[in-house]
Amino acid sequence: MRDQMTVLLSSNFKRYLLFSLITLLGACSSSSRVGPTDGVRVGDSSSLKEMVPASQLEASATRQYNSMKQKASQKNALAPDNHPQVIRLRAISKKILPHAYAWNPESQAWKWEVNLFISDEVNAFCMPGGKIAFYTGIIEKLKLNDDEVATVMGHEIAHALREHARDRIAKAQLSNLGASVLSSALGLGNLGGQALGQGLQILGLSFSRADERDADLVGMDIAARAGYDPRAGISLWQKMGQLSKDKQPEWLSTHPSGDSRIYEIQKNINEALFLYARAKNTTIDKLPNYKP
Questions:
Q1: DSSP-assigned beta bridge partners for residue 124
Q2: Active site residue 156
Q3: Confidence band (pLDDT; 50, 70, 90) for 74?
């Protein structure tokens, strides 16, 4: 009888743990509102990210970024400070960043960096903590003008501002915890946890479509406030689509393209154009090639 009672209590405790996990997941998914009161509107960011210490993630990102720079420098693949494209990228970032802080007040204390890596890869990114990288391939193969560079940069900065990496890691941690509790409760042993863990590794290779849409819109907002034409997002994705017909660029492996992406930009373009017009000290109806 005592053994049966122990088994029953153990089973009930496991169910309680699983219920508690589900309750925690729901509670942590509540959102926190951050961002300007005007301009492009996006959904609130998830507070799940609070489960992952920002300082640890940013420190890890810095170590990886520095290691990447060191290895590139040894191969003469890190563009020097006086490289024309480095000067160009840093000038654009200098205009964009003051408009980024409203989306994440903590980012004003980040040690922002912008570097150019000499590589044919069509790629760019911004690590947590403001570590920005462009590859020469994305600039040269797409023949990016300043508005398009600002669009790419704004998008990547937005991922960092909205802390999508923290959110993804938190969800993975919760999923792993859930897999452990669930597999134990169902008597699956390590097998269930391993199977779910493998799925999480695949899932963790890229941001979600919701994250990408979020980054597109927030990036468009901050670039427009800095005086860069938000319509460049349309031309950028058209160029990317043409390039991907021959071979999918590295950037698209984590940044799904398609007509739906352009559609979302067009749907929110007027809000961004008002910001752009204001930055240019004019009105939206007087913008070149403006079509109401």
A1: 134
A2: yes
A3: very high
CA distances from residue 164 to 58, 227, 248 in whole angstroms, order as listed: 13, 25, 24
Task: Enter the pTM of the model.
Answer: 0.78
- In this predicted model, what pLDDT tens digit does every residue of 124-173 receive, in sequence order? 999 889 999 999 999 999 999 999 999 999 999 999 999 877 777 777 66
Instruction: Please provide the DSSP assignment of 37-92 as one string.
Output: SSS---PPEEGGGGGS-HHHHHHHHHHHHHHHHHHHHHTT-B--TT-HHHHHHHHH
Q: Which residue has the tokens 């760019």?
A: 124
Count of H-run helices and E-run strands, the chain: 12, 5
How far is it, in rounded angstroms, from Cα 224 to Cα 156?
15
Q: Which of 58, 113, 148, 156 is catalytic?
A: 156
Q: How far is the C-alpha of 141 from the C-alpha of 224, rounded, in Å?
A: 24
Token pair in block for residue 193: 């946890």
Whole-angstrom Cα distance, residue 86 to residue 131?
14
pLDDT digits (tens, 9 = 90+) for 214-268: 999 999 999 999 999 999 999 998 898 887 665 555 555 555 556 778 888 999 9
